[in-house]
Design a protein that fits this description.
about 55% helix, 2 helices, mainly alpha
Length: about 60
Amino acid sequence: MKQTYQALLVAASMIGIALLAVFDFVPVEVAQYSPFLLLALFPGAWLRDRKSCDLLNGSEA
């Protein structure tokens, strides 16, 4: 469940940066590269956790 909250937080921050760019609080060039920067800073939000279940073997952690 923790990984879901991390993904939602990263997505909300991406949307927030996009909205700040629309209203000219953040430069557009910064907003264009912010999704890549956020994914690089928080890889746990989009990469699988080692404790996640193995779908091929059917086992759970």
